[in-house]
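User: I'll paste a sequence; please echo it back and then give the predicted structure.

Assistant: Echoing your sequence first, then the prediction.
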Amino acid sequence: QTDDVTAKDGKDEELKVEEQSNTGDDWSIVTDENEMVETKKKDEEIKKEESDKSVTSVEPISAVVLAKWDTELKQLHELGFLDDRINTNALEQLEASHLGCGSDEAVTVNAAVEHILRI
């Protein structure tokens, strides 16, 4: 059986104690509401900082990927598709889908444009 007891410590802060039966194997749970609120605030600040970092920290596109799709990227630029990150993602996704279904078909600029416009 459990009883909820509220106790005061020297700092006039309320502590909640949940008392268990008095056998030697039972534990008591002590929580400090102020600590819980502070912990929640810190967690929220950390999450906010992490989300801010994810927006500003974009890794550069690999030189290998840029070289691999150089011809296609130039053609996409001529068509007005200037975002290399979106372009390379589309080209890589199309290539992966071709590999996934066992196709030896090359990725075309037309297919990349269609893919980008569907996104």
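Residues 76 and 82 are 7 Å apart (CA to CA). Confidence is low (pLDDT under 50) at residues 1-5.
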